[in-house]
Amino acid sequence: MENIELMKYKLLILSLFLFVLSPVLAQKLVPAKWSWTLEPAKPSVGQEAEIVFQVKIEKGWYLYSSDFDKDLGPVVTTVTIKNPVGFELVGGLKAINPHSKFDKEIWNGTYTYFTEKGEFRQKIKITAENWKVEGVYDSQACSNESGLCVPVKGPFVIASSAAASDVLTDEAKKKIPESVDVASASAVVPTESLWQFFWIAMGAGLLALLTPCVYPLIPMTVSFFTKQKGGKGLAFLYGSFIVLIYVFFGTLLAFFAGASFANFLSTHWIPNILFFVIFIFFGISFLGAFEIVLPSGMVNSVDAKSDKGGIIGVFFMAFTLVLVSFSCTGPLAGSILIAASQGAFVKPIIGMLGFSLAFAIPFTLFAIFPGFMQKLPKSGNWMNEVKVVLGFLEIALAFKFLSVADQVYHWHLLDREIFLAIWIAIFGALTLYLFGKISLPHDGPSGKLSIPRTLFATAMLAFVVYLIPGMFGAPLKGLSGWLPPMSSQDFKGNSGEVSIKPGSTGVVKYGDFLELPLGLTGFFDYQEAKAYAVQVGKPLFIDFTGHGCVNCRKMEEYVWSDPNVLKRLQEEYVIVALYCDDKTELPADQWYISKIDGQEKKTLGDQNLDFQISRFNSNAQPHYVLLDPRKEGAPLVTPVAFDANVDHFVAFLDKGVRQYKMN
Q1: Which one of 183, 250, 272, 392 counts the least CB within 10 Å of its CB?
Q2: Looking at the whole model, is its pTM more than 0.85?
Q3: 540 and 576 in contact (C-beta within 8 Å)?
Q4: What average pLDDT does this structure show over 139-150?
Q5: What per-residue confidence (pLDDT) applies to 495?
Q6: Is 287 exposed, middle or buried (0-12, 13-18, 19+ CB in 10 A)?
Q7: How many distinct helices (H) and strands (E) make up the chain?
């Protein structure tokens, strides 16, 4: 009897525990909450007003903005107005001060986003006493911690009636799901570390110190400061002026390079072609074809003012150093500014700060301690060799800009194998140069190779060897952010062969504009995939994914590509990829009203997301589900989200197969 009573208490405690825990176990996430007001709240007829959308974003999440190229990949925030009544739209949706990031690894372009809070504004003009603004917002939030991406969408209404003004109806409010905590996993931070960029810029400044144009300025600096009586104070001021001059140009760029301008620089063909030409021009100059020099009259005029001494003389001495060294530092400083212009507002300033500090600190020390100059290695052929190496690197980087324009505008000038062939040729020539097999116009007499040069030449040879398999379809994951996508490569060897051949004709629904990665064959419609899985007697692998899902691409690139995972996906499962952010509008006879939120689902993405929420109580991507297509029951095993551990994913797939065979 006591055991029965004890069992009752245990069951009661367990029930209470599950009741309390159930919201945490649920997977529906709302990491960003929208609200809206009208300014002014009661506009008169003929007056313009602004709908102000405020978005409160959970800590550790970010929301994509509305002002970048919609074809880039991430989901661009949109606001759609339905059936305007008593008002007119004035202009388009405007994002207020979003952050900006140039992403090389996944998107090859610049996107804008908000953290913590976001704001969008839409102007309207009131044309009647009774007016009503009704529509829907559509956005996407992603987590820095778990890597999940979640569609955030819903309806809004603002009307002249006080009861409907500024808030959703009670019925609509009930349709918004509550948010839950997100377990931390690996981080994918949307904002590139400014510290990281600072050190990259400083490295470029250190390289600039090794160029032939800079070396002769050292004795000039020492000679100038031996005549000054300001001591260390003027020397520190000299270094500060060098930094300020460079940072001034970075600040100018930051002032003009807002989010829209950065997006233009990143994705439009005009700046990318311009950068391509500039880098080729600088690179050929570094190889010794010609010298880039400023007008001598300008340099001499500034240099003459440096003879005045004192603070003014120190400033013009610093200005002289910047101008005289321009022919060598210009390409490096320009590269930093080009990279910085595709980032946040502060990035050009940080870039020039790092570059100029590396440049200014040694000259400050020479100004303080002239004896340092005696310990420097003598100038010679080694300086020209450094310049030539930089020339090859500039030319290689130039093709990255051309590649961006090529991908955005689908010119197909630099498909993957062509890009790789060019890089193999460039770095192959650099390797031959470093080993002394070829020489250039300004090279001195060749002698024995130094140990550093030999080691660097060997590293370049290894890089060329690494690139060559890419011509035959190797993924080259270490360069995934630099190379054109695998889909642009015509020849992939045998890496794309798979054993699953959906349908007798090989044609699948939506296969004309959607594709699976890594040469995998599968479906993009659940019912079609389910029918085929029953036919061939295999479990179903459902990939809830998205075009703008960064961690979906990470999983495909680093986990799915592993031979142990790829083999299982190819041979043991029927794959269906359901894109939850695809904007393809379906035929009207396929539209339906969702039982989850009461909204009409018109697009492929909306219907896939609605299926994910209603069937699996999840709205985040990536989300992987293993099903027995013969039954409509629960998943074979607990679904998983982003997890970069290959062994975990292999165990997940193996467990699903075992469970399928037991059913």
Answers
A1: 183
A2: no
A3: yes
A4: 80
A5: 40
A6: buried
A7: 19, 15
